[in-house]
Write a structure and sequence with these properties.
It contains 17 helices and 13 strands. By secondary structure, it is of the alpha/beta class.
Length: 424
């Protein structure tokens, strides 16, 4: 080997393997030594050294990074698997009542639930008007449309009678609130005039000769009971009994306890609110009321009372039994004092020295029978059908107590006010 050739080889060794290999290739190409066996061996040696160096370099630089990435991917995969397992475990747990109540249905589910809600259910939530009758949970409630002007006129009509009556006669007034004002304090205000204010006008303008008996609180205390009919504006015999007890408490009478007296009932009564809801389209009346008929309850007492009725002022007296047995479900309220007649009179055979005259609208029918145990005689006058003078009647029958009882709507009726004014 020549000296020059040896020097070139040593120079190649001092460079990096990769660069040395390229230098060698250029060198061998220029010298023609690549094609010889020795050249091939040298080239192969350089190639192996270069490849090894390159691999070591790559490993030292990139393998730590690959390991780090690998670790991160492993941790991420493990975390994801753990999260998935946790999610499955959580979803498999039964919801607690509190959690269940917090979950909200989807809009689609909510829409389906809302659309599937029946009309009856909506009615039970808020109620609805059928004409002037408010229907709530299959019960009818009379609307109130009175005015302060009529309230004042009603008070003055009673005052004119009181001024004409003998000063020894005790005079009382009961105004019966509507069912809606007793049981539907908030709902009834939306459809009615101010009933409480109207009642206040009546009371504020009554003569000092007239004692007002407030039965509102006594009824409100029992509003959860069956004290008003479902299909009629009137109170039941139970509602009337609570008013009777309140009256006795205020005037110093002992209220009779009827718990031991035999009760009888008439089923299937449909009252005046049914007829108020009849239309050309619905000839039978409100369907919700029709499926909730009333039960008329009365007491089997006083069969030995001597009773008479005058259907009109000039019809003459008919001797009758205290209980009107000629009733059916259709006219079941006539069981009380024969319903709307000009005059009903009962001689109870008591010896109290007191005689009561009740001047009434329909609310007086259920109330009147309770007084049979407190007075020697009970006279019941329908203001619209009685044509005589109340002053003369009370004088002729030695009446000691007069009770005016009207529902608050009747007290605001011009016809009732006119009839009362004519009795003075």
């Amino acid at each position: 080997m020549s000296k020059n050739r040896i020097n070139r080889r040593n120079k190649i060794k001092r460079t990096s393997s990769y660069r040395g290999y390229n230098h060698y290739r250029r060198y061998s190409a220029s010298t023609g030594s690549q094609g010889t066996g020795l050249g091939k061996a040298v080239a192969l040696s350089f190639a192996v050294v270069a490849a090894t160096s390159f691999m070591i370099f790559c490993c030292s630089v990139y393998i730590p990074k690959l390991v780090d990435i690998s670790k991160k991917n492993f941790i991420s995969a493990e975390s994801s698997a753990e999260s998935s397992t946790l999610s499955k475990t959580e979803s498999s747990k039964p919801e607690s009542k509190a959690e269940s109540s917090k979950s909200e249905p989807s809009k689609q589910e909510a829409s389906k639930a809302e659309s599937s809600k029946s009309e009856t259910s909506k009615q039970e939530d808020k109620g609805y008007l059928d004409g002037n009758v408010f229907i709530y949970k299959n019960v009818g409630y009379e609307s109130f449309k009175g005015t302060d002007e009529n309230a004042l006129k009603y008070a003055n009509s009673l005052n004119s009678i009181a001024s004409a009556l003998d000063s020894s006669i005790n005079i009382y007034s009961i105004i019966v609130p509507t069912h809606s004002s007793i049981s539907l304090d908030k709902l009834q205000k939306e459809n009615n005039a101010n009933e409480k204010a109207n009642l206040q006008v009546i009371n504020d303008n009554l003569s000092e000769k007239i004692s007002f008996i407030d039965v509102e609180n006594a009824l409100k205390d029992k509003k959860s009971k069956y004290i008003y009919y479902n299909t009629d504006e009137n109170w039941t015999s139970l509602g009337a009994y609570y008013a009777y007890k309140e009256f006795c408490k205020n005037v110093g009478l002992t209220a009779t306890d009827f718990s031991s007296v035999e009760k009888k009932q008439i089923e299937g009564f449909l009252g005046g609110l049914i007829y108020s809801t009849k239309t050309d389209k619905n000839k039978k009346g409100n369907t919700d009321l029709l499926k909730n008929p009333d039960t008329i309850t009365y007491y089997n007492f006083g069969n030995d009372y001597q009773c008479g009725i005058w259907r009109t002022e000039n019809s003459g007296e008919e001797t009758v039994s205290f209980i009107n047995n000629a009733v059916s479900a259709e006219n079941a309220r006539d069981i009380f004092c024969y319903g709307d007649v000009s005059l009903f009179k009962a001689n109870t055979g008591k010896s109290t020295g007191k005689r009561l005259c009740i001047v009434k609208d329909s609310y007086g029918s259920e109330l009147a029978p309770y007084f049979m145990e407190n007075y020697d005689e009970v006279h019941i006058i329908d203001a619209k059908l009685f044509e005589g003078s109340l002053t003369g009647y009370c004088y002729n029958h030695s009446i000691t107590d007069v009770l005016f009882i009207n529902g608050i709507n009747t007290a605001n009726e011009k016809e009732q006010i006119k009839a009362l004014s004519a009795m003075a």
